[in-house]
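Quick one - inputs below.
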Amino acid sequence: GQQVMQIPQYQHVQEGEDFTTYCNSSTTLSNIQWYKQRPGGHPVFLIQLVKSGEVKKQKRLTFQFGEAKKNSSLHITATQTTDVGTYFCAPPESNFGNEKLTFGTGTRLTIIP
Amino acid sequence: KAGVTQTPRYLIKTRGQQVTLSCSPISGHRSVSWYQQTPGQGLQFLFEYFSETQRNKGNFPGRFSGRQFSNSRSEMNVSTLELGDSALYLCASSWGGTGTAVDTQYFGPGTRLTVL
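Output:
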């Protein structure tokens, strides 16, 4: 079956530094979604990537989908305390013709003020 | 539009008991999925309901079951609770109209279940 690895598991950065999390799959993905979960909160949808090599930006967040559609990354420029949380990649996995989301292990980002 | 609501928010049970959790999706959403979140296993998919039918299920034992009503509200039941069932149970709704593909998931606040 599909295996999704997300690295790093934890990242501590000084406020203002950049942050990147990577999501790697053993199989080609049809698309991938990214979610953010604040401490004590629930996952919130950030973005979906569909096309090979796709790059999307949301203010300081840049999302990329690899050319081979087997990996994806989320880069945050100049982190702020509001960026604290766990970031999950979530590609779909086909299960007898129906798709379900499989969440990566997540990268927990903490900011040192 | 009101978001996804889940009740109760917190629950404490003892081993062997059973529990029912409830989820009300965003108005107009017909798909409801349930996830279990634990520190050790992360976010694990339990099952998905669409138009009152289970459309997909994860790898959980039969003690975990669910159902969906005609108004799209969903319930999840766990029977014969075990200590390892302690977790945050998240419900997510989506439009569900793209056939078998996964739409954007809108999560509720979750139910924190503690099994003693």
